[in-house]
Amino acid sequence: MNLKLLKLLSKNAHYTTQELAVMADMTEEAVVQEIAQMEQNGLIRGYKAVVDWERMDSAFVSAIIELKVTPKAGLGFEEVALRVMKYPEVESVYLMSGGYDLSLVVKGKTFQEVALFVAKELSTIDSVISTSTHFVLRRYKELDVELLGEDGDDRGNYLL
Q: pTM for the complete prediction?
């Protein structure tokens, strides 16, 4: 496993193998073999574009949802995590330490759609004790990509 190559790919998966070879101080053939090996071993799980959805006319609403869960004997939190990750609205699922157990990133077309998803789907799961929904108002950085463009912050710069 080449850590430098992984960091380059995570920064920009659009680099060509030739560019990666130069930046990682490897041959192009070695880059191709290393990437194929990391994909085969499951170290590289996929490639995605980071989209600034706020620039689209049909923007989406995102929310971070905290779930408190009663773990089941022998399964812990896995049963609920595996169940909620199957919903198409759910982008990410994380097991957390602290005040809640699972953190979900959920996407919908409207605030209402997300709220109904939480009320009808998530909160009705037997092991779910409570939910707390936090709507994302603006994204500044996602997956190590800065999204704040020339428009700047809508609040402006005010000096006191």
A: 0.70
